[in-house]
Design brief:
212 residues
Length: 212
């Protein structure tokens, strides 16, 4: 008579502890892969924002570099605008004294930077209004050259600011999304500040030296 050995139901099955270990390993690999992805993409977006910030600084610096020439030309034609000229020079000094670490552009720092630059822009605008009192100055070739350069610079500033804001929005959105937000703080990714639109900022200031 043949004896049949009962089948062992546990044979070929993965032990519970091994299954738990596999699950843990899969989760660890998934979390690790996500962390690496957040790190790499975050660095790329951060560097893009920093590059756009460098373009902003370059555009503002170009405007600051034009101001001494503007002041000298106006000074040569007007003897009664010293207060206006002084305010432009002081506003330029204030604006150029504010420096921001591109790797840590906080909303507070950017607000201070923007306020100083807007103050300088307003001082320049007030100075240009005085030009209307001096027909000879409006016809000066050096002044006409400055007109072209200032208009081009204002356009560069607006374009650079918009490009920077776009890059920062992309970066800020990325670090706030789940599950990226779980790793962002660990890697030091902090929210960056944005330029805030001012009334009329959608249009570059007009510098008109033509006779009226």
């Amino acid at each position: 008579m043949t004896t049949t050995t009962p089948a062992n139901p546990s044979r070929g099955m993965i032990p519970g502890w091994a299954m738990a270990l596999i699950v843990i390993l899969v989760l660890a690999l998934g979390i690790g892969g996500c962390a690496v992805s957040v790190k790499n993409n975050g660095v790329t977006k951060d560097e893009t924002a920093e590059k756009k910030w460098a373009d902003v600084q370059s555009a503002y610096q170009r405007r600051a570099d034009l101001i001494p020439n503007l002041v000298e030309v106006v000074k040569g034609y007007s003897d009664y605008e010293q207060e206006t000229l002084t305010k432009v020079v002081e506003a330029r000094a204030k604006a150029t004294s504010i420096t921001i670490d591109p790797s840590n552009i906080t909303p507070e720092q950017l607000k201070q930077f923007q306020a100083a630059q807007d103050e300088l822009g307003s001082a320049i605008s007030r100075l240009l209004v005085t030009v209307e009192r001096y027909p000879d100055l409006k016809a000066n070739q050096n002044y006409l050259d400055l007109q072209s350069q200032l208009e081009g610079t204002e356009n560069r500033i607006n374009t650079s600011r918009n490009d920077y804001n776009e890059a920062v929005r992309d970066y800020n959105t990325f670090i706030r999304k789940f599950p990226n937000s779980l790793f962002a703080s660990y890697y030091g990714f902090e929210k960056k500040g944005l330029f805030q639109a001012q009334a009329g900022s959608e249009n570059a200031p007009k510098v008109d030296f033509s006779d009226k």
